[in-house]
Give the backbone structure.
Amino acid sequence: MTAVGIASFGPVDLDPRSPTFGFITTTPKPGWAHTDVAGPFRTGLDVPVAFDTDVNGAALGEHVWGAGRGIDPLVYLTVGTGIGGGGVVHGRLLHGLVHPEMGHLRIPHDRGDDPFPGVCPYHGDCLDGLASGRALAERWGAPAQTLPAGHRAWELETEYLALGLVGIIGVLSPRRIVVGGGVLEHPPLLPRVRRRVVELLAGYLDTRELGSDVDTYIVPPGLGEDAGVLGALALAQTTLAARRSEPSRAE
């Protein structure tokens, strides 16, 4: 074994200068907050360990092998039990103060139309709080996969996901967005979200991608459910390649 890649749910600490580098930090998942994930692998295996969020890993996997191959900037958004997003910019995963937390975008919420308060334990009605699989189940009292095509749930889901994507497009201007996760297994949802994104942008961004070519701009994962696992492999490969190039840079 020459390197390990870990793509973990977050939030996580990605700052190598931090004493909690490699930790899961403030996750609401029971039993996981402030857990050292990467440390035991570094200690026990004595190989380079790449550590990032699961959605950043999936973004990298899709960039290297999947529906975003060679596309830059690229965004990957997953809509499952929770909502998360990752990005590739200039060939590198998007980091900053921490890492992208696209699921916690604050989006318009008309409480007269939808009085549901949201399920996010931190923000209530952020994108994750209103449109995740967990939110669907709690709002309607049934898992998303059991809700029929004509159910009111899908109208709201379309609106919230489209609002979230419009925000991402406005800030990051990606050349493609890959959208995956279990909620998107409802076949009519992605086409409806594409159309609503175009409607909400109202012609302001005059590109084919946000008009006639939107079907090739907002796309499902090329790697399917393997995006996260292959993303972890891509993380390991990227870290190993960087380590191997260090002596030549020193010369």
Observations:
- The mean pLDDT is 91.
- The chain has two domains: 4-53+227-250, 70-222.
- The longest strand covers residues 83-89.
- DSSP finds seven helices and nine strands in the chain.
